[in-house]
Amino acid sequence: MLKQIDLPSRLRSQRELINRELERAIQIGGPDELYRTIRYSLLAGGKRVRPILCLTACAASGGSTEVAMPTAVALEMLHTATLIHDDLPSMDNDDFRRGRPTNHKVFGEGMALLAGDALLSYSLEHVLLHTDAPTSRVLRVIHTLLHTIGIHGAIGGQVIDVQMADREDVDLATLESMHTRKTGALLSAAVVTGAVLGGADEELVRRAESYGMKIGLAFQIIDDILDVTSSLDELGKTPHKDEKQRKATFPRLLGLDQSRRRATELVASAKQDIELFGAGAQPLCAIADFILTRTH
Length: 296
Ligand code: GRG
Known about the structure:
Elements: H1 7-25, H2 32-42, H3 49-60, H4 65-86, E1 96-97, E2 100-101, H5 103-107, H6 109-130, H7 135-149, H8 154-164, H9 172-198, H10 202-229, H11 232-235, H12 241-244, H13 250-254, H14 256-273, H15 281-293
Antiparallel strand pairs: 1-2
Helix pairs in contact: 1-4, 2-6, 3-4, 3-9, 3-15, 4-6, 4-9, 7-9, 8-9, 9-10, 10-14, 10-15, 14-15
The structure holds geranylgeranyl diphosphate (GRG).
């Protein structure tokens, strides 16, 4: 019989560890204003789901926290870069993020753009400079991260998002394709890079990728649901934004109940994908369940 995991305290201690590492990783000098702009968004809280997934997948594959930490930190930098850019007036045009005014509201659009760019390039540099692992694994991590944010990942997904604005005829396939790129790809990359650094074989990496894509889409469905059902205090960002912008969302296309059912099915299927990890699957399953029950 497997020991039950105390997920809340595990998440809390991993978040603290990651926050300490982020604070350390970002002491890089450079222009003061850029440094302040980066810190403002990177150290503003956040659930740290992507780095936690990376550390957990690495441990499930037999690797150490140390070997995965530079990539875990890089994933949070990349995620923060996408949030800063996503909030810009030319994109989603948001005023609040992580419980405070968005980056461009405080530092202006130019600095916000540059902070995102700087996080993007520095994240990859950080992995290269600090990962103590075989070169082939480090190169695979770098390739996975680049692919994930590039044309076939977050940037490609954002293009679909921009093109979808004001369109009333968006179907479920287009919506899923966009979120697979925008949200699913980075969550999946977190699990894949963790597994690669932990020394998982190809079959396990494939399973990790499939699990990551499914929990990534479920994460986005819950995000859409929370936009309808939560408050600014709970979310740390503006609620009912999708409705106001007449955006295509899962609740709009499927309704709340059906959306929740779809997320539940995805999580159940993701958990099956990783059974091959044996005992190591348990914390990954607990994180998948957390994604369904999260309140912000
Ligand atoms: C390459 C810099 C760069 C950008 C690519 C702008 C853009 C193009 C993509 C946007 C991707 C994006 C922001 C998707 C939304 C993903 C999502 C559900 C974010 C919320 O994540 P949480 O809930 O946030 O984990 P916290 O604050 O907890 O970290």
